[in-house]
Design goal:
The chain has 331 residues and is mainly alpha-helical. The chain has helices at 14-19, 23-33, 43-62, 71-88, 92-105, 114-126, 137-149, 153-164, 169-174, 197-202, 213-223, 237-250, 261-274, 277-284, 289-303, 310-323; strands at residues 9-13, 180-182, 189-192, 204-210. The chain has a four-stranded antiparallel β-sheet.
Length: 331
């Protein structure tokens, strides 16, 4: 493998890759991808939309409503559905996914759901989202050590990787051994991501450069027994979530931490260490500095609210120092 140099994110325009291929190769690749209709949204997103729309149809049946015969009546019934979700204490995502799902499966109705989208906007203004709390470095290394002690080395590696590169949960769960390459001295590694949410917008495959030599060695050691097609995780995403939840409980973390806390905490820690907002946007793949600034401001405010019992702090520090001796855990 050749040396790894350059910035912390590398984007390869998809059209440049396809442009080098002939018609036969393009046809073969497109057949493997499927129809354009199936590529409008990712399979997981489509499944989520289908579940949300099915929930709406069940609402209609359970209340004895007939199926809407016009877009205006559909809008009225979706409004009633959203009101029911609000009063029943359901998450706003049920409403969001229903609206997006209807727009996906019946594109012609998009412009007709005016009332329903207004209610969705009202919900957004009335109820602030419960954002994941950002992890601190001492928390991340403590979690990694605790996971390793339980024999969950895959969770330990993904926690460290997610915090270092502000990775999204889905990116961590889908990471495979073959997505990583190292330079000759094993001091840097490139993680080639599948076509991500931000990559889809610009038609580019994104890559992240990992330049923390300690983490690079840890990743190389862990992946030495894996085949290129193996996931870094050894169990399903659902079990990974359950295991992290178990560790958070064992270590007496307060409520509000989850896998997404790695992205929030990693970006916030990087900004506090460098005060370089543009670099945070680059590594975290935010297209808008304004959006990233709001994101970081909120996370920094949350850090001031984190209160851990002294005995919990001492235990986290003990575990973190076992994970990475000599690291300065001052925050």
């Amino acid at each position: 493998m050749g040396p790894v140099d350059g910035p912390s994110v590398v984007a390869m325009p998809r059209q440049q890759v396809l442009g080098r291929r002939g018609r036969v190769e393009r046809k073969k690749d497109r057949q493997a991808l499927g129809s354009l209709k199936d590529l409008v949204v990712a399979k997981n997103t489509r499944d989520r939309y289908l579940e949300a729309v099915s929930r709406f149809l069940l609402f209609l049946r359970s209340h004895g409503f007939t199926y809407p015969s016009s877009f205006s009546s559909l809008d009225a019934k979706v409004c009633e559905f959203i009101e029911a979700l609000w009063h029943n204490g359901d998450p706003k995502s049920y409403a969001s996914d229903c609206l997006s799902g209807l727009g996906h499966f019946v594109p012609q109705c998009k412009r007709s759901l005016v009332g329903a989208w207004r209610l969705h906007g009202s919900w957004t203004r009335a109820e602030l989202p419960a954002r994941a709390l950002p992890f601190l470095p001492v928390m991340v290394y403590a979690l990694a050590q605790a996971a390793f002690d339980k024999g969950w080395s895959d969770l330990a590696v993904l926690v460290l990787l997610g915090f270092d590169r502000f990775a999204r949960s889905g990116e961590l769960f889908m990471a495979k051994r073959g997505d990583f390459t190292w330079n000759t001295t094993k001091t840097k590694a490139i993680w080639s991501l599948p076509l991500t949410k931000s990559g889809q917008r610009v038609g580019a495959q994104e890559s992240l450069v990992i330049d923390d030599s300690w983490l690079v060695v840890a990743l190389a050691n862990y992946m030495s027994a894996l085949s290129p097609g193996d996931y870094l995780r050894s169990v399903s995403p659902g079990i990974m979530r359950s295991r992290l939840k178990s560790l958070l409980s064992d270590l007496k973390f307060p409520e509000g931490y989850q896998w997404y806390s790695l992205r929030r905490g990693g970006a916030t820690h990087f900004f506090r260490a460098t005060n370089d907002l543009s670099r945070v946007c680059f590594v975290g793949r935010w297209n808008s500095i304004k959006t990233a600034r709001i994101y970081l401001t909120d996370a920094l405010a949350q850090l001031t609210e984190i209160q851990l019992e002294p005995v919990v702090q001492r235990n986290l520090l003990r575990l973190a120092k076992r994970a990475r001796p000599g690291f300065q855990f001052d925050s």
